[in-house]
Design a protein that fits this description.
406 residues, alpha/beta, Rossmann fold, 3 domains, six-stranded mixed sheet, five-stranded parallel sheet, 16 helices, 16 strands, 42% helix, globular
Amino acid sequence: MFGLLGRKLGHSLSPQIHEKLGDYKYDLFCKEPEELDSFFADKSLKGYNVTIPYKVNAFNACDELSQRAKKIGSVNTCIRRADGTLYGDNTDYFGFSYMAKKAGADFKDKKVLVLGSGGASLTVQIVARDEGAREVIVVSRTGENNYGNLNLHYDSDIIVNTTPVGMYPDNGEKLIELSHFEKCTCVLDLIYNPLKTQLLLDAEKLGKNFANGLSMLVAQAVKSAEQFIDKEIPETEIDRVYNELLKERRNILLIGMPGSGKSTIGRLLSEKLGRSFVDTDEMIVEKAGKSIPEIFADNGEKCFRDIEEECVKEISKEMCKVIATGGGAILRERNRFAMLENSVIIFLDREVSSLATDGRPLSSSEEKVKKLYEERFPIYKSLADFTVKTNDDPQVTLNEVLKCVF
């Protein structure tokens, strides 16, 4: 039996990952500090992973350590040997190296800026130095290099975030203004919830290479699994598991003009995939306690857009959903950033002449619809991962959407 040792593990993806890697039982071991001695002494477990805050405790409990673990000073993989001794390794080293390579980060002769000075930071620093970085600068809140003198390091080539800033539920937060780092070619963020932090969204907008921490999580798990089952696992398995997780976790978010069929297709997708369906217009009505035409009539469009922004931000933090958004939800940049955090975005594009107008405050006539379409079309196209032409047969549209996301 194998598993993961930690203190709070409710949102861990490790069981899902290991289920895809081997035919063995993998449990979560939530332990308090006073329970660690008895846990490390338990010889019934063949092996386990270790996460914060117990990686140093595991390091100290092991009878023998790998060179990587010694160099980093912490352990994330423990193996119980036949003679009863405990062997410790740190597969985070391989995980981060793999993540960086997949993002196209080449550390040789580069200046690397590492945000944060905790345990994960140390792993990043060692990998960067081992792979030939010219200079590694560690930024902390109170150290010599801090967030008050970042201007000294605007010439950094690679930036790595090892802090929890921007992690769920505090989506949208960031430590730096990336546009100041003109020489930077690659941004790596160890966070994987959301899939794209604000830092990574900024990197994408600026055309820089980037990666989240999900590939690191999977890669380190594969190296742990090899030791659990004492068998080499092909590196292609990392990509397979990563892609499966991505498809399972990403929201499918529908954008398009009012009347383009987002709610209809969204409900069909929900039934087909067994996912919960959320319509942001319905969220708005529930929050406001009145219909959308009534919100426009009583409070105006700005009030409606403010409530809409709250709803888009709230639902976009979730995962594994099917989401239908209002036609104008794409107008605010904050909404667009929120949509991009965790979703594959599908633009349902319907002929203007076929769009419904009844009960729609901003598109109550064909002339108004045409004007709105012309204004919004460039935003829909630039935001969407895929565009699907809709028609009068929802099943045909559904099948086209499914081809895009699977």
